[in-house]
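Researcher: I'd like a structural prediction for the single chain below. Treat it as a standalone chain; there are no partners to consider.
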Amino acid sequence: MPFFGVVLNGASGAVVWAAILAGCVALTLGSARRAPWAWWWGVAAIILATLSSVITALRVDPAAFILAMDLPEQQTALLSEIAMPARWVMALVWVVMWGTFLVYLLTVRRSFFAADFDGQPPISY
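Model: Treating it as a single chain, here is the predicted structure.
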């Protein structure tokens, strides 16, 4: 698992995934209740995910991911023949991807902070 510039596997990777899963469950429950804390923690999670993705894209060689997956030798050989984009391109892709989630959160902000918008009711779907 890529995490802030390193590839975690085994128990350390499982612990990090479990923590991310627990955070996502908490954010899901808070978002379902339109709790303002969930919106803020969602923004924080996106910023952290962006930083982790960009740092990892810039530091870790794509071949390290392939080795960490412990794939069969034939699949590893096939993957090694694929041309990988430059690291800065991958970093840019991550910024764009996570940036779209941030734009989405900014779009739905009024649903979490209805009182901040001149008494207008929150958007209902």
